[in-house]
Specification:
The protein is 50% helix and 8% strand. The protein is α/β, with parallel strands linked by helices.
């Protein structure tokens, strides 16, 4: 049976169809936030099977399989690739009305030309067909990115990373621009001081700096930030459970860091002061190099202790948090602005209850001469599906200027996930088409088409200065 993925998928009006096909469909992709492994890009990795490229590390799929009661070994264990794929094919019919159902069939069609529904009866033919194609040069890692029409992508990298793979990609002169992204979150996690101190030693080695006090910690980060900048980095990213805006003095933070280096547990107040100080320091570094800073706020991670102890982090046991952070977020941004250190900033919320909080926060800190300095990032993680995207776009439209929006990112570890850009573009065009149909906006195709192109391509290209 053929899939539901027709040319007019998600496009409910002729106006939406025109906007998508004439203005959005063929635009290159700028993916300014993802978790793709740069080693695979540098080495133009050839995937061994459909399971390896599609299920390995995909906690979206794992969560669905676990919900169906499938044994954990088929997610993270040692059965064969085909056995794992069979279990995913068994799960797919249960994902109706879940975004996985859309993404699964979009990805099969766009990457492999497979236009049939995945279920247990089609699993064998689909697996063999796609796995066979993955053995050919046309389906190597780099060719896949070209197939998606990716122009620029930014990975997520720790300050201690040597960026050797980014160097190789740059030296190859490849048509797709692959840039590092600065992600210094590790220093903010004070739950395991032994592990943290081991990391600080690694950071010091990468910066050729012995980190013994707060001054040398700052010096190490300054060196690494400068190195990332020399490698073309244009943005930072911070994953936060909540916002932080404690009042501190640098001498207080020096004392707190001394305790950390001695693996002496700090209290909640000290932790808050240290995190606020480090975030402010990083923000000032970002401002000095004219980077964009991104804050992803609202995840509570590794909630299942048994599975965390077995599998480690980022294995599908995270969820939406419920912290109230409007006031500290406003205070934190205001502090940067007051010091003249507020660079272009993107805020992302994971809890949809905070949509209006984020949309109204932007207007407090916009700046003369900078179009859309403060941005509300695209619907993220659990929200990057049709309902979440629609609500985010509607709220931004009501409380801000939608045309300045910098659009979609994959936020993914999979080279198959670029269908999310198509998904976003279709949803955006459908919303505008329905507005025309309902008499809510003018039927001015050149105006609306320019808006679609700005959101999907021109805005991110200009905002990040790619």
């Amino acid at each position: 049976m053929k899939t539901f993925i027709t040319d007019e998928f998600l496009l409910e009006t002729k106006e939406a169809q025109q906007l998508y096909h004439d203005y959005a469909e063929k635009l290159p992709i700028i993916d300014f936030h993802n978790h793709l492994p740069p080693a695979e890009i540098a080495n133009d990795y050839q995937y061994k099977s459909l399971t390896e490229i599609w299920l390995k590390g995909d906690h979206y799929k794992w969560r669905a399989m676990r919900t169906l009661g499938i044994e954990e070994k088929y997610c993270t264990g040692n059965p064969t690739d085909y056995e794992k794929f069979e279990k995913w094919a068994e799960t797919v019919p249960y994902t109706l009305r879940n975004p996985l159902y859309h993404w699964t069939h979009l990805e099969l069609l766009r990457v492999f030309g497979v236009d049939e529904i995945l279920n247990p009866s089609t699993a064998d033919s689909i697996y063999n067909n796609c796995t066979s194609k993955l053995q050919t040069p046309e389906y190597s890692c780099r060719r896949l990115l070209e197939r998606w029409n990716v122009e620029t992508l930014c990975t997520t990298d720790d300050p201690a990373d040597n960026l050797e793979y980014h160097k190789k990609i740059a030296n190859d002169g490849w048509k797709v621009t692959v840039l590092p992204g600065w992600r210094p979150d590790r220093i903010l996690n004070l739950s395991d001081l032994v592990s943290l101190n081991s990391y600080i030693d690694r950071l010091g080695a990468s910066a050729d700096t012995s980190i013994s006090d707060l001054s040398s910690l700052k010096d190490a980060y300054q060196k690494r930030h400068s190195f990332f900048n020399s490698m073309g980095c244009k943005l930072s990213d911070y994953g936060l459970k909540t916002a932080h805006a404690a009042t501190y003095t640098e001498s207080e933070v020096e004392t707190i860091f001394s305790k950390i280096r001695k693996s002496i547990k700090v209290n909640a107040e000290e932790e808050e002061k240290f995190i606020t100080f480090m975030l402010t320091f990083f923000a000032e570094l970002d401002h000095s190099t004219d980077w964009v800073q991104q804050y992803h706020i609202g995840a509570i991670r590794n909630n299942n202790t048994l599975m965390y102890n077995t599998l480690g982090p980022d294995t599908g046991f995270d969820s939406i948090g419920d912290a109230a952070y409007a006031e500290p977020l406003a205070k934190y941004i205001d502090n940067l602005l007051s010091k003249g250190r507020l660079t272009r900033t993107i805020l992302y919320n994971l809890n949809p209850k905070d949509n209006e909080v984020m949309a109204t926060m932007l207007g407090n800190f916009q700046g003369e001469g900078v179009r859309g300095r403060m941005q509300w990032g695209s619907a993220w993680w659990f929200l990057d599906q049709k309902d979440g995207m629609t609500k985010q776009i509607d709220t931004l439209s009501a409380l801000g200027l939608l045309r300045l929006f910098v659009g979609m990112v994959t936020d993914s570890r999979s080279f198959m996930s670029y269908s999310r850009h198509e998904y976003f573009r279709r949803i955006l065009c459908n919303m505008l088409g329905n507005d025309i149909k309902n008499g809510l906006i003018t039927n001015d195709m050149p105006l609306l088409g320019a808006m679609v192109q700005d959101i999907c391509y021109n805005n991110p290209k200009g905002y990040f200065k790619f």
